[in-house]
Amino acid sequence: MKVQTIRASQFILRPFKKGDESSLAKNLNNKKIIKNLLLIPSPYTLKDAKEWVDKNLKEYKKEKPSMFNFVIDVDGEVVGSIGVRNITEHHMAEIGYWLSESYWGKGIMAEAVKLITVFGFKELRLKRMYAFTYPSNIASQKTLLKNGYVFEGILKKHAYKNKKFLDDYLYANVK
Ligand SMILES: CC(C)(COP(=O)(O)OP(=O)(O)OC[C@H]1O[C@@H](n2cnc3c(N)ncnc32)[C@H](O)[C@@H]1OP(=O)(O)O)[C@@H](O)C(=O)NCCC(=O)NCCS
After folding, report:
1. A Pfam family this protein belongs to (predicted)?
2. Which of 15, 46, 60, 102 lies 20 to 30 Å from 54, alpha-carbon distance?
């Protein structure tokens, strides 16, 4: 798929590249972030970051990728990431995101979700974009609501994390 860069007011969205591993590991290895993400191990190591960058580089080369992740780049550093996964062609995908704690509360993710939603509907020609959040994650829920995502319901024991079954809230935006 064509790899693209999207400019925003405080950051750029761009694909992962070699060299991102150290800032990725540094900024994502934070329990306050990881507790809200399903698939990220804690601690998040440089080895994890290398595997993730490699996986994304392979995925960008596919004509029909199943996921597409952008780096949230400030001054060349990976300060966060936003992407879509479980892409089903011309139909739907799940969005997910995180941001380094030192950048929280500046409106960055509100803008990033807006941009990825346009990317999903226009470039991937999706009809439905959805996200899961834990009930306690008010910041993420507000970020979705600001961008046209609607609360669709509670999925009981939908997530399994740290040997516990957790409820998920489901939000979706349809075109
Ligand atoms: C969720 C997260 C991405 C929000 O990013 P952010 O750039 O700080 O969010 P923004 O500054 O764009 O704020 C978006 C909205 O959330 C609100 N918000 C931000 N942090 C908040 C907090 N801690 N508590 C309550 N509301 C909060 C903002 O006020 C804003 O809403 P408003 O405009 O109605 O006031 C960030 O906190 C994060 O990375 N958390 C850990 C990982 C995570 O939860 N990922 C999502 C998993 S579903």
Report:
1. Acetyltransf_3
2. 102
Is ligand 1 within 6 A of the CB of residue 106?
yes
- Say if ligand 1 is within 6 A of residue 108 CB: yes
- Residue whose Cα lies nearest atom 3 of ligand 1: it is 98
Cβ-based neighbours of 43, under 8 Å, separated by 6 or more: 29
Taken in order of first residue, the domains within the chain and their CATH numbers are 6-131 (3.40.630.30)
Tell me what the pLDDT averaged over the chain comes to: 97
Rounded to the nearest angstrom, the distance between the alpha carbon of 63 and the centre of ligand 1 is 33
Tell me whether residue 116 is exposed, middle or buried, using C-beta atoms within 10 angstroms of its C-beta: 0 to 12, 13 to 18, 19 or more.
Answer: buried
Is residue 145 lining ligand 1, measured as CB closer than 6 Å?
no
Residue 46 CA, ligand 1 centroid: distance in Å: 26
pLDDT exceeds 80 at position 68: yes
Residue 170 exposed, middle or buried by CB count within 10 Å (0-12, 13-18, 19+)? middle
Per residue in 109-139, pLDDT tens?
Answer: 999 999 999 999 999 999 999 999 999 999 9
| In 63-168, alpha helices (H) | 108-118, 138-145
Confirm or reject: Cβ of 98 under 6 Å from ligand 1. Answer: yes
Find tokens 């892409």 and name the residue. Answer: 87
